[in-house]
Write a structure and sequence with these properties.
Layout lengths: L2 E3 L8 E5 L16 E5 L7 E3 L10 H7 L40 H13 L4 E5 L2 H9 L7 E5 L4 H11 L5 E5 L5 H6 L4 E7 L11 H10 L3 E5 L4 H4 L9 E5 L13 E5 L2 H14 L5 H12 L1 H21 L3 E5 L9 H7 L6 E6 L3 H10 L4 E2 L9 E3 L11 H7 L5 E5 L5 H12 L3
Parallel strand pairs: 6-7, 6-8, 8-9, 9-10, 14-15
Antiparallel strand pairs: 1-4, 2-3, 5-11, 10-11, 12-13, 13-16, 15-16
Helix pairs in contact: 1-2, 2-9, 3-4, 12-14
Length: 437
Amino acid sequence: MILWTFWPKNLEEVNFRKKGVSLSPDKSGRRISNFKCETLPRQRRVRVTEKIKRTNKLKFETKAIHVGQAPEPATGAINVPIFQTSTYVQKSPGAHKGYEYSRTGNPTRTALEECLASLEEGKYGLAFASGMAAISTVLNLLKTGDQVVSCDDLYGGTYRIFEKVYRDYGLDFVYVEPTNPANFEKAITKKTKMIWLETPTNPLLKIVDLRAVAKIARKHKLISVMDNTFATPYFQKPLNLGIDIVVHSTTKFLGGHSDVIGGAIVTSNKKYYERMKFCQNAVGGVPGPMDCFLVLRGLKTLSVRMKEHEKNARKIALFLQRHPKVKKVLYPGLNSHPQHKLAAGQMDGFGAIISFVLKSNLAGTKRFLSKLKLFALAESLGGVESLAEHPAIMTHASLPKNVRDSLGISDSFIRISVGIENVEDLIEDLKSGFASV
């Protein structure tokens, strides 16, 4: 079924439904026709099912370009317009055309939310001003006294909001080594309400068995949440593996051009969606229409970029693995990775993030990073350009030193985000860094 978004010329909200049955196409592949038109004046966004002639799902690349992004009818503009407005005129009190106030809803944002949901193969999408705003909204599903069991290796900003913000509001957080699913079940208590996951984890690139942990969450009636920023829905679809909620920093690979900050949530659970949608509006951590437009633009080329990111990352991981000044390389695509087989079984690719440990000290590591030119020394990841960073000083500085040490995030630990430049140029750039060690 193809869902197209449009603005009717008569400015009335309409919804087409097949008489007497659901619009969802049946397994027989019968053409659905004979629609009944009903006026829905208060519906926020119009979804029209047009020309449903087949039941085959659109492929990923097609959805990224078309879902939620039909040509604008008044002018024929191929791109979703940037609706740069804060409010919407109403014919009479409560009689609006689907939108009231842009914190509550904006047509550009709706297009992005629909597209994100389709890529993760979920029912509902929500867009936010940052990945942290998305994470905060998920945590709003909990109440004082509730507990979250989380993997022990995760983004420093996530750890910071857990420990420095929500713990002060009475939430409890427990961290477990995530490569053994049994560790999550052992940590569950009567207070536990949520399991929080990353895979690959940040920055150690551990792989979590999503099917196994999702099964544990269902057994104990817990909410399972997965940060899919590193893999993207192109390489991994957690909802299809049993996870309840997926979060993203759209700043990273989804935006893909290092020019926007954003976040997202996707779920197929209506109860969770309605609560998070309420919190999205009530708290107001929403993206502006220009930010939504930029992420939509990035999604259109996501599949092409991820293929090039991974191709370059594989070659660079092999180069690093053979280099005499490298002590250890962490990349799920290498056979040497402890969970390589698991990654291959639940992912469609291994991504573009590589972590490695130099045979050096902090001073040597700083020299290495300072010598790089194409690998820009900067926080973040997922852009078309390659980035390198020092987790202990930069992205994971919010973790106490004893926690970093226990995880293995040492002073000689480096994380790189491999871009889509020519891989030979990137390898030459790394060689210049090694020359200084």
